Amino acid sequence: MTGSPGRWLVALPADRWPGVDPAGDGVVALTAEELTEAGRRGVHAAAFHEVVAGDARPAGSTVDVFLPAYRGKRLALLLGWLVAARLHRGGVRVAWHLDKRQGPDSVRRLLVEHGWRLDAGREGRGVVLTGEPAGPIAAPEPESFSAEVGDRRLDFAADFGVFSPGHVDEGTRLLLEVALRGPAAPVVADIGIGYGPLATGIVANGVAERAVGTDIDALALWLALRNADANGVPLSVECSADPGAVPPTPLTVCNVPTHIDAARSAALMTGLLARARSGRLLAVVHASLAERYARYFADAGLSPVRHPGPQHVVFDARG
């Protein structure tokens, strides 16, 4: 697409894709799945963290925002700032599409308190809030915390539904302990980086010079980039479920998500084990699931060293 899209669609749900016009619409994606669907349909798309960085032009006529139900109402403030600062210009209509279970009245009050003019109307079984920002909108500050990681005290923003807000989780801490005892590498890949405690901690402690990372959550990638910058860590990221979306590295780390379905687990492990062929792989899982994940290593012909912790196990493999 050249120029501005006529309409930006933010956080587009699956049931709305049939109405998207590849010739005139653009999608602001919060997930890798949305980016994949946009590519499949030939629709221009940009991930959330890319739009924050300025990789988008204002809409020609309309911005439609579909507030996700699973991230909390504070996300409306962040998306409200994104729309006002990156996607909106005078005369552009903004519509917020909400399910009644999301509490549209409270979302409207929240947005109005933070500088929006909005009218409420019906939209099938849902509610649509229509209007525009009354003026400049301030970006909300994410919830944050500080933590001792190795020899450094690091600051992390962790908010808007990311994993383990408020503290570095036990599995990540165990993996960090193992990584910080190991040899240095020029670059570390953090697969499923989240808000970035692994990548940031490893580079900040001098075990790697820079980091690359992947995640399926573009909001998490925005936080990871913000945290890396705040702690003086060079980081580049890709919004993808594929561990191969970043180049081979001498060190790869992953806090393996164990809540995903079997097919996605298998695809993730296949990608991680492929990375182990060109370097060292450190992957942490809950101890109760260790034997399940050990089978992936065995099937790939790898015999990883295990580093047990109180509740987690780190698999340490080299190809």
Automatic annotation (TrEMBL):
It holds the Pfam family MTS. It comes from the Bacteria. Keywords: Methyltransferase, Transferase. One of its GO terms (molecular function) is S-adenosylmethionine-dependent methyltransferase activity. The keyword Metal-binding does not apply. One of its GO terms (biological process) is methylation. The keyword rRNA-binding does not apply. Residues 154-278 form the Methyltransferase small domain. Gene3D superfamilies: Vaccinia Virus protein VP39 (3.40.50.150). This is Methyltransferase small domain-containing protein. It comes from Rugosimonospora africana. The lineage of its organism: Bacteria, Bacillati, Actinomycetota, Actinomycetes, Micromonosporales.
